[in-house]
Amino acid sequence: MSYTAIDLFCGAGGLSLGFQQAGFDILAGIDANQPALDTYEHNMNGAIALNEDLFKVEESLDDISEKIGHKNPDVIIAGPPCQGFSLTGSRDLNDTRNKLYLAVVKAVKYFKPKAFLIENVPGMATLYKGIVKQQIINTFEDMGYAVSVTPKPLLAADFGVPQIRKRMFFVGYRKDLNYGYFEFPEPTYNKDNYVTAGDAISDLPSLENSLGEEVSDYIKEPQSTYQELMRKHADKLYNHVGTRHTEEVKWVISQVPEGGNHKDLPKGVGNSRKFNEAWTRYDSHKPSKTIDTGHRNHFHYKWNRVPTVRENARLQSFPDDFQFLGTKTQQNRQVGNAVPPLLAQAIAKKMIKHLNKEDKDAEVDRQLNLRI
Ligand SMILES: C[S@@+](CC[C@H](N)C(=O)[O-])C[C@H]1O[C@@H](n2cnc3c(N)ncnc32)[C@H](O)[C@@H]1O
Q1: What is the distance of C-alpha 303 from the center of its chain?
Q2: What is the pLDDT, as a whole number, of residue 98?
Q3: N or C end of the chain: which has fewer CB within 10 A?
Q4: Is the pLDDT of residue 294 over 90?
Q5: Does any ligand 1 atom lie closer than 6 A to the CB of residue 15?
Q6: Please, what's the largest Cα pairwise distance for the chain?
Q7: Fold of 4-188+344-371
Q8: Residue 10 a catalytic site member
């Protein structure tokens, strides 16, 4: 049986894609950023992309409902930006200014899905000594949901993503449907068999002698199982376009060894950037650092340039047939904002099992009732 879902703050659709790969029927993605929505609709077979300001969610809910044919989605998934948190001392989120979280609360109240999932950065869990996290749990528990929170943030690399990226999740299931509490998936990879940056991108053209094109051809066969997976549905290479660096930037980064950073530079070199992640060169033998929305401090493990959008997308586990639209800056933001689809997929599969469990129980009850 296939379950339906809508995605609030969908961005380009990392979370949606993982849920779709797991078997969900994604009805719609909602966001306020048009370039991200263009990418979403272009790639998310059949899901509609709705441009709504979720700060004013009350005004959007009827519209969303109409656009998805007045169906109640089985699941609501959401990755709201972590902003605007402030405390009022109440146990209830409604009394805070956490407007974007409230959008999820209000959508859940309106659609009454069987389950919901919210994703956020690990810092959310410890914000104001965990009070915000507790407020979110309380709010949804009071609304009739059994809420589980990741006991510690999930690490994307533990689920086959070539990246050290930690994210926390809330998952709730309706208490009246007797699902019980959800348990998060167990890691399927560990330090000894993590997919590395080399496994992820070693087949892609170096762009040493040209900047490349938005659409180009592969020049090598896949070099790893991961690359085979990423290229499974693609026969062209999209979004693999280099960046024009100054001679100075190229000269500085050429002196950073693989896996190194500004601390490995000779005295006096690269002084313009000194912070933690400055002049970081990936290590081909390890997962990459967290892909962000496009700062210029992470460099290819071998070439003297920042990674392309496609390389970052690979490190986020977006398959190669997923094309990013908009300017390069917008594309990088879409990639960096996303939940890695493979991580989303692992949680989504577990959520389906949890939904099926209840559905089977309900079917058994129904059969028993028929016999009585
Ligand atoms: C962390 S990103 C979500 C990424 C997405 N879950 C994914 O996996 O690709 C947060 C998104 O919230 C959107 N956003 C921020 N403020 C918004 C608002 N007021 N209404 C709707 N969307 C908003 C941003 O445009 C951004 O795409």
Answers
A1: 27
A2: 67
A3: C
A4: no
A5: yes
A6: 84
A7: Rossmann fold (3.40.50)
A8: no
